[in-house]
Design a protein that fits this description.
Layout lengths: L5 H9 L16 E9 L2 E6 L2 H10 L6 H9 L3 E6 L5
Parallel strand pairs: 1-3
Antiparallel strand pairs: 1-2
Length: 88
């Protein structure tokens, strides 16, 4: 069974997409860096890079919540914790 669109399908089948030009753009990192600070017995998670600040703007507030960090991991980002040294 041929349709009236068969010549169009034949043309489309022969078209190949143009080769992509290689771009030297660096890929965006998938690492979220978080500074962990202990304030009055509670752990606070402060953003330490641009991606972490982006998630903070979405969430709102000044520190990232544990739930937000869990969702960030579910999205495929790697969470890197930078903890201050404990001074005695």
């Amino acid at each position: 069974m041929t349709t009236h669109l068969q010549p169009v399908f034949d043309l489309i089948k022969d078209i190949t997409p143009p080769a992509r030009e290689s771009t030297d753009k660096p890929r965006r990192s998938r690492i979220v860096e978080v500074a962990v600070k202990n304030q009055y017995g509670s752990l606070r998670f402060y953003p330490a890079n641009a991606i972490a600040f982006s998630f903070l703007r979405i969430q709102g507030g000044r520190t990232l919540s544990q739930d937000t960090l869990k969702y960030v991991k579910e999205l495929g980002y790697q969470v890197k914790f930078n903890q201050e040294e404990v001074r005695i």
